[in-house]
Amino acid sequence: MNKIINLEILLENLEKEYEMKKKKIIEEAKVEYEKTLEKYRREAENKGEEEAEKIIEDAKRKADLILRKKVSEAELNAKWILLKEKEEAFHYIINRFLEEVYEQTYSNISKEIFFWHLYRTLKVLNVEKCNIRVSNKTSKLVDKRELKEKLKADGIKMKISFKNDDNIDEGAIIEALDGKLKVNCSFRELVAKDEDLIKRVLNEKVFERTR
Amino acid sequence: MMEKKAFKAIIELENRKKIEVEEIIKEAEKIKKMAEIDGKKVYEEIVKKKIEAGKEEAKKIILEAEKRGEEEHKKIMRKAEEEREKIKENIKVYEKDAIKEILETLLARWRE
């Protein structure tokens, strides 16, 4: 009877041992399953973040380019608008200048400028004789005697004759070498010669002036 | 006779259980294999999700840049318009000064 009981206990123990072994195998497999999944999760997090970071960095570069492009375009447009406006303003002022330069208000300074313009042109030409055709409205600005005296004082011997010419709108035309050489001396010409300088001055002292 | 029977019972049990263990080992192997398959799936899903989030963030960054670009553009153009108006006003107000400036510039240029 005892032997039978012992056998039953033995079989029972053996059964339990095997069941435990089975359970352990399954549990270990499950633990390994979780570990493997966790490993993939970690790798995926790193990889995903790395990829996302690349995309974001690329977007930041593109965003910077977009912003810079927009700003450059605007700056270029703004410059163009202002340049156009200044160019129009310059032409307007020059036209007003050419209208006003012969008025009484500015006659002293206009006279002086015209004197120096004629004098220096004649000095450079340095010819024996020349004819100066003067427009009617410029004629009042030309002090013939003073001009001749200044040339003489500087040792320049030059025979000069003056003649009023209705065909000339403003200023004067110096003719030398029997009409082969002609020099246009007018305020329009003066302004054209120094256009850049005048633009600079007007820009600084008038166009961009703050009140 | 009795001992022989007991021994047989033990052997039978052992054999049966060994078969069961082998099956369990196979099942465990399947679980491990499933871990690789599921792991790869999870990997792909997470990476995809992260990339999508990155793309969304990138889209926001680009949109923000475009918005800021427009604002900057408007700001610069507004300033240019103001300067343009100022030039127009200055010409009206300082026309006589401008003529004087030209005369003085020409005089300084030509006077010896």
What this model shows, in words?
The complex is a heterodimer of chains A (about 210) and B (about 110). Chain A is built from six helices and four strands; from the N terminus they run ααβααβββαα. Chain A has about 210 residues and is an alpha+beta fold. A four-stranded mixed sheet of chain A has the order 2-1-3-4. In chain A, strand 3 and strand 4 form a beta hairpin. Chain A is rod-shaped and about 160 Å long. Chain B has a domain of about 80 residues. Helix content of chain B is about 95%, strand content about 0%. Chain B is mainly alpha-helical and about 110 residues long. The termini of chain B are far apart. The mean pLDDT of chain B is about 95. The chains are: A alpha+beta (about 210), B mainly alpha (about 110). Chains A and B meet through helix 1, helix 2, helix 5 and helix 6 of A and helix 1 and helix 2 of B.
Helix and strand topology:
The complex is a heterodimer of chains A (211) and B (112).
Chain A: H1 2-100, H2 107-125, E1 129-134, H3 136-139, H4 144-153, E2 159-164, E3 172-176, E4 181-185, H5 187-193, H6 195-207
Parallel strand pairs in A: 1-2
Antiparallel strand pairs in A: 1-3, 3-4
Chain B: H1 2-93, H2 95-110
Number of alpha- plus pi-helical segments of chain B: 2
The first-to-last residue Cα distance of chain A is 126 Å
CA radius of gyration of chain A is: 50 Å
Number of helices of chain A: 6
In this structure, how is the largest beta sheet of chain A organized? Answer: 4 strands, mixed
Can you give the mean pLDDT of chain A? 92
Oligomer: heterodimer
The count of DSSP E runs of length 2 or more, i.e. the number of strands of chain B, is: 0
Q: What is the 3D form of chain B?
A: rod-shaped
**Helical proportion of chain B?**
over 70%
Average of pLDDT of chain B: 93
Structural class label of chain B: mainly alpha
- State the major sheet of chain B: none
Shape of chain A: rod-shaped
In what order do the strands lie side by side in the largest sheet of chain A?
A: 2-1-3-4
Strand content of chain A: 5-15%
User: What name is given to the CATH topology of the largest domain in chain A?
Assistant: hypothetical protein PF0899 fold
The assigned structural class of chain A equals alpha+beta
Work out the number of β strands of chain A.
4
How far apart the termini of chain B lie comes to 148 Å
